[in-house]
Design brief:
It contains five helices and ten strands. With 214 residues, it is α+β, with helices and mostly antiparallel strands. The C terminus is likely disordered.
């Protein structure tokens, strides 16, 4: 005699099968039928933006126009002194028309490895060299429009030196405690997304520890 499968279990199997099929279809990706470059902006060393307008076919068979951009990867460095204070910068941001508190950061240039960019940007923007640079995380800052990566590094064993700002940078170096930065975040005074993410990845635990630097 054949076993009788409860209707609820049959429905669960059907739902699981549907999810698996739809997931497999999504993993196939969209098909690019046509791609047109609209704009290129860079400085010869890094690409700030390459804007494209593509015609693509989705997994559901719809043909749509999709605007996306390419840009060189970005590196953010969190420099931590021996006493757990943070080396940060205040930098004028032209699109916003104001000065922001940030961690040193910059575009990967040419064939650089991100760790090389981290060392270079740290020295150029703050004057510090690091005995140890540790990769902490990688994330996509604009998943709906770009495949760009942001690489977060932590720098320790810092030795002070001289800055080498380029002509487009208006920067002042600031040394701050993690508690102070945490207070500024709570007050809404740290507005750079990359700096906020990097702080919580590298520093939030230090700021919350009892007996930490105040």
């Amino acid at each position: 005699m054949a076993a009788v499968i409860p209707e609820s279990r049959v429905m669960a199997f059907d739902l699981l099968s549907t999810i698996m099929v739809e997931g497999a279809e999504m993993n196939k990706g969209w098909e690019c039928l046509e791609s047109r470059k609209i704009l290129h902006a860079g400085d010869g060393k890094a690409t700030f933006m390459e804007l494209y307008q593509d015609k693509v076919r989705t997994t559901k068979g719809q043909v749509v126009t999709y605007t996306r951009y390419n840009a060189s990867d970005v590196v953010i460095v969190v420099p931590i002194l021996a006493d757990n204070r943070l080396v940060m910068i205040k930098q004028y941001r032209y699109p916003l028309g104001k000065v922001l508190l940030e961690f040193p950061a910059g575009h990967v240039e040419g064939d650089e490895e991100p760790v090389q960019t981290a060392k270079r940007e740290l020295e150029e923007e703050t004057g510090y060299k690091a005995k140890k640079i540790e990769r902490v995380y990688r994330y996509h800052p604009s998943v709906s429009r770009s495949n760009q990566n942001v690489h977060v590094f932590k720098a320790t064993g810092l030795m002070e030196g001289r800055t080498r700002h380029d002509g487009g940078e208006d920067i002042n170096v600031r040394v701050m405690t993690t508690r102070k930065v945490q207070q500024l975040i709570k007050q809404g005074k740290v507005e750079s997304a990359g700096t906020l993410i990097s702080y919580f990845l590298c520093c939030a635990v230090m700021a919350d520890k009892k007996g930490g630097i105040t």
